[in-house]
Structures are given as structure tokens and as C-alpha cells.
Amino acid sequence: MMNNRFSKLVQEYLTSYIIGECNYSMNTKSSYSTTFYLFLEFMKEVKNIKPNKIEIETITKEVIVQFLDWLETNRSVSISTRNQRLACIKSFYKYVQTNEPDLFESCSTILSIKNKKVPNKMITYFTENEIKIMINYLNEIKDLKKLTIICVLYETGARVSEFINIKLNDLNLSENASITLYGKGNKTRIVPISQELVRLINKYIKEAYNNYGDDYLFYSNYKKVYNRKSINYLINQLINVLKLNFPSYFKGSYHPHSLRHTKATHLYNNGTPLLYIKEFLGHSTITSTEIYATPDTKKQREEILKNSKTIDSKNKYSSNKIEDLNNWLKNNMK
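The structure corresponding to this sequence follows.
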């Protein structure tokens, strides 16, 4: 058992502070706990220091940077994940800085570590045609449960962590229908849904739903609540079948979050202001929402061609002058 100052601060931070004072979700606590588990592994493997021998005074900025580099090289994590781990560490050191005045300077040094720049990459999303193909296919094979899962994920734009925790009492299936989602940091938002989705959910509950005791809207075939891995598997299996059946479509690399990206992109391409999309997705800042401000390439091309002026080129040169001009270019462009 760890019983030194570092151990005491970590345990207090993960229990009384994260859960008690901040009221962060269990998902957040799990992510932060994983960061410290990996750090202990790094210290043991690279620094040859056992967990119960780690002293907080010896954890310098250089050590933290080495840990982050180790995550990338030895654990093959993405730059985004590296930055998430750094955010966890910074949160911990802000807590330490407040509660341990003698460590103020060392904490400030660690808090000065900057995020690593993430290369810009295009988000993956389904076209409107691909969503229609997906829904029609699930209708044809009469997979009511999977159809409902896909439609709820798409129409609500829910994160997977929000989706798997939807319960029956989170559904408002009245005229002004909505689903209540519980997001990051236990933030709650109410997402409007269409009457078409209301009818689908009612049909699913009536014909295909089994309640295994705790009122979740969806359970796996193992009578358990879905987790991220099982939803990812479900989506991948579906997309693999669709790629075989519709080879002209589904060219991207997809994951459960792609449905969230898809909904946001479709909203933006159809004229919804970014501020509304921000609230719909539950983003804390507009910066996170701006990744969707990239118009559909097909629509972009159509708009550019439609609004471009035609430039007429009138030939002002005789054939002799053109030949002279060509010879000049050949001689001067060598």
C-alpha cells in the first residue's frame, strides 16, 4: 500500500475532491484513475521506483514530460489522448497547489506544460444518403432493436457514454418529445426528438424491449447494459455489412461517434447556427463545435461553380504569333 504524501494526495483527490466537491461523473473518475495507474507503471518501469517509494517532491516537469512521451511511444496513444492525460495531471496539481502551499512553485512549473499540437484531420461522418441506406437496410432485415439504436444515436447526437445510460424515465414521448441526456461532468441537457422517432421507440418498447431490472432503454444480448466496446462492435459489424452490400458508399473509417459527427454536420450543412449546434451537442465552448464548420464538399463545389463568373478568353494572336510565343516559352522555361 502507498502511504506517503503523494499517495495521500492522490487518494484524497480521487475521492473527496473529484467525487465529493466537484461532483464529477464516474467516467471522469475512471479516466483520472487510469492516468495515475499509468503514471505509477511508468515510474516503476522507466524510473525503477515502486509506487510506495514515489515522493511528490521528486516529480518534476521533466518527469511529467517523459511520462507523456512514454505514453506515445510505449503505449501508442494518440496526441489527443496524451493531452487528455496531461489535463488530468494538471487538474491534480491545481488541487495540490491549493492545499499544499509549500509545493506551489513546483506545481506552477508542471502546470506550465503545454498541450502537444494535434494535427488537423477531417472528421468522419455519413452522408444523408448513407443514413437513409442504413435505416432502409435495418428496416428490410426487420432488426427493430438495432434500428432504434442507430436512430436514437443519430437523432440525439449523443455521446456513447450518454446513450448507454438512457433510462425509461429519461424519455418524454409526448407531443413535445425529448430525451434527457447526462453528459460530461454530470451536465444534463434535454434533446428534442421527432414524432417519427417517438413512434419507433414506442414500437421497440412494445415489441422488442426487455427490462432486466434497472430500466435502461437498451440491453445487450447478454442481458447487460451496453458499454463503449459493445456499441463499437455493433456499429462496426453493421458498417462492414453495408460496405459489402453498397460498395459505392461507406468509404470512410467509422466509429460510434461518427453518428454524433454526422448529426452535427448535417445540421450545419442545412443552415443551423453553430451556437445552436453547440447547445445541442453539450459542448462547453464554441471552439469544440467549430470542427463542424466545414461545408459538405459536394455542396461546396456546387456553390463555387454556381457563383463563379465565366471568363471568356478571346484569341488575340495569329497562328504565326502563337508559334513564336511557344518557341519563346520553350527557350526561356528550360
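The first strand starts at residue 171 and ends at 172.
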